[in-house]
Amino acid sequence: ALLMELGHHMKNLKTNVGLTDADFDRIVDRSWDPPVTLAVRLVSVISDDLQHARQAAFIAGVLSRRPGSGA
């Protein structure tokens, strides 16, 4: 499911932002060994965003189960 989600985001970027396959291979950070490509950085950002969304959903669930929350 995660790979499908990442594929969807990459296709969306290509379509809506105008990125090409060559853009994803572009080096964006040479301070790492190996250097980081745009594709790897985007996967990292998307992964981080998904983790924060899961954390927010967890907290929402905890708060909805508190006494007096109506759950």
* Count of individual helical segments: 3
**Cα Rg:** 18 Å
Secondary-structure element order, N to C: HHEEH
Question: How many DSSP E strands?
Answer: 2
Sheet with most strands: strand arrangement: 1-2
Termini separation? 30 Å
Supply the helix-strand structural class.
mainly alpha
Main sheet, how many strands, which sense, barrel?
2 strands, antiparallel
Form type: elongated
Beta-strand percentage? 5-15%
Give a brief description.
With 71 residues, this protein is mainly α. The chain has helices spanning 2-17, 21-24, 38-64; strands at 27-29, 36-37.
Structural commentary:
This protein is mainly α. It contains three helices and two strands. It has helices at 2-17, 21-24, 38-64, and strands at residues 27-29, 36-37. The protein has a two-stranded antiparallel ribbon. It starts with a helix and ends in a 7-residue tail after the last helix. The model has no long low-confidence stretch (mean pLDDT 87).
Fill in the keyword field for this structure.
71 residues, 3 helices, mainly alpha, two-stranded antiparallel sheet, elongated, 7% strand, 66% helix
List the topology elements.
Layout: H1 2-17, H2 21-24, E1 27-29, E2 36-37, H3 38-64
Antiparallel strand pairs: 1-2
